[in-house]
Amino acid sequence: MHYQFDFGALLPYWQSFLSGALTTIEITVFSVIIGLGIGIACAIARRSQVAVLRAVVGVYIEAVRNTPFIVQIFFIFFGLSSVGIRMPIIAASVFAMVINVGAYTAEIVRAGMDSIHPSQIEAAQALGLSKFQIYRDIIMLPAIERVYPSLSSQFILMMLATSICSQISAEELTGVANNIQSNTFRSLETYFVVALLYIAITYLMRAAFFGLGLIAFPRRRRLGLGV
Amino acid sequence: MSVAVKLTNVVKRFGELEVLKGVSFEINSGEVVALIGQSGSGKSTALRCINQLETIQGGSIEVCGHRVEDPKLDVRALRRDIGMVFQSYNLFPHMTVAQNIMLALRRVKGMRKDEAYEVAKPVLAKVGLSEKIDSYPEQLSGGQQQRVAIARSLAMQPKVMLFDEVTSALDPKLTGEVLRVMEDLARGGMTMIVVTHEMGFAKRAANRVIYMHTGKVWETGGADILSNPQTPELKEFMAEEL
Amino acid sequence: MFGAFSTNHLIYLLDGLLWTVILSALAFLLGGIAGFFVMLARISRFRWLRRVALVYIQIVQGTPLLIQMFILYFGLGVFGISVPPLAAAGLGMMVYTSSYLGEIWRGAVGSIAKTQFEAAECLGLTRWQALQDVILPQALKIATPPTVGFLVQLVKNTSLASVVGFLELTRAAQVINNSLFQPFLVFGVAAFFYFCVCYPLSAWSRSLERKLNVGRR
Ligand SMILES: Nc1ncnc2c1ncn2[C@@H]1O[C@H](COP(=O)(O)OP(=O)(O)OP(=O)(O)O)[C@@H](O)[C@H]1O
Ligand SMILES: [Mg+2]
Fold it and tell me: Where does the record place the ABC transmembrane type-1 domain (chain C) (predicted)?
């Protein structure tokens, strides 16, 4: 059987595609920024002296990392609405994403912190740096710099995971595609276009992380040494 | 006397960098040749071209009847005739000494396990390590590992052996035990090209010395050129080596 | 209006869990085989083959699994090929798995020093023999922890087969929730089941990783 591809039928929808892509990027940016903060906090908590704190954070991280995102988002979105809390869909999406990004980031950042040699900290102490300075400049920044590649590929994976938000009817790229294909009956074409858009966003993110790395780390390294 | 290895105007480039600039020399069967020269002069590259670990850009190389630069060359046949020992031993860490030696016998020569074992035993005895036959490489000292590497090559009965600074990673005591094995081999009539910084070994065991400088054969002759260099470069090199 | 969560529901979920495990195993097996060839292509002597493999990996790793599932589902439909849901889901998961495992394994093979390859070649072994006898046995050790770690991702991602109608754990939970409307309970139980499969794998992967690092000193 021969199938006639008809990408022309999708042309009237270009604005929808674009707005879907923008929504995907927005969800990603918000959840990465907030999630990164939570992840760093959790990484610090994982190394804390307080056993209870370590345990609580550990349970959070393991629970998130060992269950599927789609189940988490159903749990949160349908769960909350079942007890009468109606969250806007995008807010619920970002909320679920943040929880995820936080847990994954925490593990990566912790690995980075563990890789800082104790002698570095001793050297900083010998120089008379304050505890906070040591944490920021000797442990945290070098740790993040070291795991920066893992972090950025994790964030790209998280961006791809936002497509799952379509399952609670979020109007991001995949959600938009689901609507368009049911209007046009051009499912295959629609998903091909969307796949290309995702690849474009992936490259965009790679480029952004590359640029960010160039800007962020040389400068901060100097700052760290200058303290 | 038949020619075992013959290089004619060999040119080797890595991108822009010309590492061998028309290298020519001949080595007869049974000869032991020491290849010496400063770091970066192209000694390792020359050895690697001989068994086609590197492809050459110009000139020709002939080894035991194989034309190395020929596109139709049977590389495996070439390598069956050449044994090579590296500075970093390159034993296979997941195999015992016996397995290291038997691997090529079984896979390349198609021997059965027990046949290969019967070949491995005397070769290992030759390098003085019979009792280590079931050890893993990490259980051996550097010198012992290097002797196993030599045995591994010898087991294939190559016609020519190439040695690339095989003692550079070893301390003097271990260097001695490896050099003794190599001198035994030399006395046994093996054709050998030995890249080395061990001038003592060169004087004792080499029939001929080739001094390379900036990618060219700069001076060549009997072992006596080491004590009586003709070119200022070799003179300076010898002074640095002492 | 809400029914009670009963043993029948639990059995229904356990049945879904079984299919999740079956789909994971199938994807791992097929994806592993395909991933091995992806790895071979990535280290091939032929530049064009390396390129093709790289493009394949970048496409698969640059698009959401959900989209891949849709493309496969509608694609097969469009060409009039009707396959059972297990096969459709399995095929989608296989593509996804092959690209990630291919990349993980290529990394492991690449971490074995080039000199090991050279030593084998100098002894007259063919490329394939060198790979088989010298490189792969060493790479296997290095590749095991990340492979087990990937298994966790794989099990979790089979949940996306639910969107093309494959009745595994997540789909089963949705079906039950549609009639009971107790999302916290139903999805909580489903999440717990996933956790019971994934957590041991995560822990195993971590302990393998630790052992490997100790072994290397
Ligand atoms: N694979 C390669 N790619 C690029 N340049 C190379 C490569 N291998 C060697 N070279 C260069 O070729 C030159 C000669 O290297 P070679 O290893 O042959 O020197 P050598 O005489 O063996 O030195 P050494 O005593 O340090 O071992 C060096 O400048 C080196 O940097
Ligand atoms: Mg060298």
Answer: 17-205
Cβ–Cβ contact C214 with A under 8 A:
no
- pLDDT tens, residue by residue, B150-196: 999 999 999 999 999 999 888 888 899 999 999 999 999 999 999 99
* Sign of the four-CA dihedral C68, C69, C75, C81: positive
**Is C173 inside a domain boundary?**
yes
pLDDT in tens, A47-56: 889 999 999 9
Place of tokens 């003085």: B128
Q: Which of these, A153, A144, A154, lies nearest to A221 by C-alpha position?
A: A144
Chain C CB within 8 Å of residue B84 CB: yes
Give me the domain span that covers residue C160: 9-216
In the numeric block, which tokens belong to residue A183? Answer: 């209007």
What is chain B's Cα-based Rg? 18
Number of domains composing chain A: 1
Any idea what the CATH number is for the domain that residue C202 is in?
1.10.3720.10
* CB contact set of B17 (below 8 Å; sequence gap of 6+): none
In testing the pocket of ligand 1, which one of B19, B198, B199 has its CB within 8 Å of the most ligand atoms?
A: B19
Other beta carbons within 10 Å of A130: 11
SS3 category, C29: helix
Question: Please, are residues B235 and B229 in contact by the beta-carbon 8 Å criterion?
Answer: yes
Q: How far apart are CA C188 and CA A1, in angstroms?
A: 45
Query: Is residue C176, in this structure, part of any structural domain at all?
Result: yes
Number of domains making up chain C? 1
Q: Atom 8 in ligand 1: which residue has the minimum CA distance?
A: B45
Our CA-based measurement puts residue B84 at a distance from the nearest CA of chain C, in whole angstroms, of 6
Q: What is the CATH number of domain B3-241?
A: 3.40.50.300
Give the whole-angstrom CA distance, residue A116 versus residue C134.
34
Neighbours of A86 (CB within 10 A): 9
pLDDT (0 to 100) of residue A225: 32
Q: Which of residues 51-80 of B touch C (CB under 8 A)?
A: 51, 53, 76, 79-80
Is residue A115 situated within a structural domain?
Answer: yes
Closest CB to C123: pick one of B93, B94, B108: B108
- Give the Å distances, CA to CA, from A33 to A22, A144, B72, B115: 16, 14, 59, 66
| B39 Cβ inside 6 Å of ligand 1 | yes
Q: Which residues pair with B193 in a beta bridge?
A: B33, B162
- Strand, helix or coil at B63? strand
For A98, the token pair is 């943040």
First to last CA, chain B: 35
Ranges of residues in chain A with a pLDDT under 50 are 220, 224-227
pTM over 0.80: yes
Q: Specify the pairing of strand B32-37 against strand B17-28.
A: unpaired
Tell me, in angstroms, the distance from the centre of ligand 1 to residue B40's CA: 5
| A4 lies in some domain | no
DSSP annotation of B129 reads -
Ligand 1 atom at shortest distance from the alpha carbon of B87: 27
Residue C52 lies in a domain: yes
What ipTM did this prediction achieve? 0.93
Strands B208-213 and B3-14, how do they pair? unpaired
Determine contact, residues C172/C162, Cβ cutoff 8 Å. no
C182 touches chain A (CB under 8 A): yes
Residue C2 forms part of a structural domain: no
Q: Which residue shows structure tokens 């999708």?
A: A10
B45 lines ligand 1 (CB under 6 A): yes
- Residue A7 belongs to a domain: no
Pocket test for ligand 1, best of B14, B194, B237 (most atoms within 8 A of CB): B14
